[in-house]
Amino acid sequence: MSFLKEINRRRTFGIISHPDAGKTTLTEKLLLFGGAIQEAGAVKSNKIKKGATSDFMEIERQRGISVATSVLAFEYNGIKINILDTPGHKDFAEDTFRTLTAVDSVIVVIDVAKGVEEQTEKLVQVCRMRNIPMIVFINKMDREGKDAFDLLDEIEQKLGLKVVPLSFPIGMGYDFKGIYNIWEKNINLFSGDSRKDIEETIEISDLASPELDKLVGENTANTLREEIELVSGIYPQFNKEDYLNGEQQPVFFGSALNNFGVRELLDCFVEIAPKPRPKQSEERIVKPDEKAFSGFVFKIHANMDPNHRNRLAFIKIVSGEFKRNTPYLHVRHNKKLKFSSPNAFFAEKKEIVDISYPGDIVGLQDTGSFKIGDTLTEGEVLNYKGVPSFSPEHFRYINNADPMKAKQLYKGIDQLMDEGVAQLFTLDLNGRKVIGTVGALQYEVIQYRLEHEYGAKCTYENLNVHKACWVKTDNEKSEEFKEFIRVKQRFLARDKQNQLVFLADSMFSLQMTQQKYPSITFHFTSEFE
Ligand code: GDP
Fold first, then answer.
1. Where in the numbering of this chain does the Tr-type G domain appear (predicted)?
2. How far apart are the first and last CA of the chain?
3. Which of 40, 139, 264, 377 could make an S-S bridge to 294, C-beta 3.0–4.6 Å?
């Protein structure tokens, strides 16, 4: 197959949702359609289970699953689909944000009863900022939930989306009869036990046809006719360009658990979802069909074997072909590296591959030379944008609890930070080290992994910080900036890239500081224009 054909047949996306909305179940059904798995239960949930096991066991279980489900690839009707796993738990939100830099589109799963939940809001906001095309799947239609129109309103208001229903439910919960597929103009009737089989659909080219009354009963048929009329009155026509530009979001209804409405979603997805898209680097926009290979690291996973400190760096291929045993430039180190066993990912396994294409993810064995955001190319100096650090929510001093193991501790911290587990800040005043994280769980992860993988022990100490802001000024020599540095010295630190960071102890003090020093800007992510 030609290079262009390979690119055009790839769809790389992520499924985002609040925990429990049905992401794992939907992933599994998609894989069933692709014939990539044979039975339910094959896809492991990356959820944090509380209570069943100790926290440490849980962390290890979670990490094991995280590598197993990082990328799930399968083929469907000649299309190569790569699903990138995104943890729903809020303590791992940063992982998800970074994974979103490597997807070309997303599917948002919403529980029909719970509606728009907290994590959905946060994740969709990130997608909107990046104009990522989104399709919404409203799940659990076999249960009582919100009225379809109310829920569509809620989605528009809370998520700031412009929805276009491409399917519509016929009843709900106990009375759920199926869905009318607006996109394909057919009806799919729900029998309640379609779990295993791929259901039959019935063509309904004209909703006025008496055939519909026979299928679902006269009352239900009339309600559906009214509702579909309302849909076409309220919502705009589907427009693929608008969807691709992130200005319009198609909506599907279904029940992942019952494998109902999933085929409709998948068929529409492979037709409209974007193939690999061009990507902005600091230097220029890079197109997928450029001959020269380039890609970037969006995830690093430590090997589960503590005796071998190998890691797997996940690279999203942006342009060209990635070939085994070919030297590529590690731009940050200005060094050529060759990879003898790059891994490609399939439904449940990974395999060494000779060649991969834009849209694909390869896993490269790494002994510590990569960090998140690194770019690999055939020789050109490119730095891909869009893998920023986000301002953490929690801050603690980290102390060495075993003086004999200081070296191990620093090495461990260094590598865990490269993996993106948390962020390290060093105080200007006294050189003390502060760990900032998005979730409190990360402190346990760090302590546990430092001990088990590096043989080092640490303790934490509380620190009153509300937000870390990256500081930017156009004139470092200005009196204003000098005064800021002098007055706020206690609150200044450096991140790992030696960028200046202001650790504000409260929202109020941040606002006061912003007012007092108007020529300085305070950013909540590490990457800014
Ligand atoms: P995730 O946290 O988003 O990955 O959610 P899961 O896929 O693990 O699903 C959470 C729970 O909802 C599980 O108990 C599923 O069996 C259940 N579930 C998923 N889809 C449906 C559905 O369509 N109907 C019903 N009734 N339950 C569902």
1. 8-279
2. 40
3. 377
ipTM entry: 0.99
Comparing CA positions, the residue from 411, 424, 418 lying closest to residue 455 is 411
- Closest atom, ligand 1, to C-alpha of 254: 23
Closest CA to 62 of 89, 83, 100: 89
| HEC readout, 41-109 | CCCCCCCCCCCCCCHHHHHHHHHHHHHHCCEEEEEECCEEEEEECCCCCHHHHHHHHHHCCCCCEEEEE
Question: Cα of 269 to ligand 1 centre, how many Å?
Answer: 21
In the prediction, which pLDDT does 368 show?
83
What are 74's two structure tokens?
Answer: 């399968």
Binding-site residue ranges: 17-24, 85-89, 139-142
- What would the DSSP string read from start to end of 192-218? S-TTSSPPP-EE-S-TTSHHHHHHH-H
Coil, strand, or helix at residue 523?
strand
Average pLDDT per block of 10 residues along the chain, 529 residues long: 94 94 92 75 66 63 67 91 86 84 96 95 90 97 94 97 95 86 86 56 79 88 93 95 97 92 93 95 96 95 69 94 96 94 81 93 90 94 81 92 93 89 93 91 88 92 92 92 94 92 94 95 75
Residue 306, amino acid = P
How far, in Å, CA of 397 to CA of 231, rounded? 55
Residue 18 CA, closest ligand 1 atom number: 3
CB 135 within 8 A of CB 269: yes
Take atom 11 of ligand 1 and give the residue whose Cα is closest: 20
Could you identify the atom of ligand 1 that is nearest to the CA of residue 139? 23
Q: Are strands 79-84 and 10-17 parallel, antiparallel or unpaired?
A: parallel
Q: Is 161:133 a contact under the CB 8 Å cutoff?
A: no
Known binding residues for GTP: 17-24, 85-89, 139-142
Q: Measuring from each residue's beta carbon to the nearest atom of ligand 1, which residues come in under 6 Å?
A: 17, 19-25, 45, 47, 88, 139-140, 142-143, 255-258
Give the separation between CA 287 and CA 277, rounded to whole angstroms: 7
C-alpha to C-alpha distance for 247 and 320, rounded to whole angstroms: 29
Gap from CA of 255 to ligand 1 centroid (Å): 9
CA 454, 71, 353 angle in degrees (round to 5)? 90
- Which residue owns the Cα nearest ligand 1 atom 21? 257
Rg of the chain's alpha carbons, rounded to an integer? 25
> Angle at Cα 372 formed by Cα 68 and Cα 290, nearest 5°?
95
- Ligand 1: which residue has its CA nearest to atom 25? 140
Residue 292 · residue 333 · CB < 8 Å: no
Cβ–Cβ under 8 Å, residues 516 and 504: no
The contacts of residue 393 (CB under 8 Å, 6+ apart) are: 437, 438, 439
Nearest to 297 by CA among 245, 363, 247, 239: 363
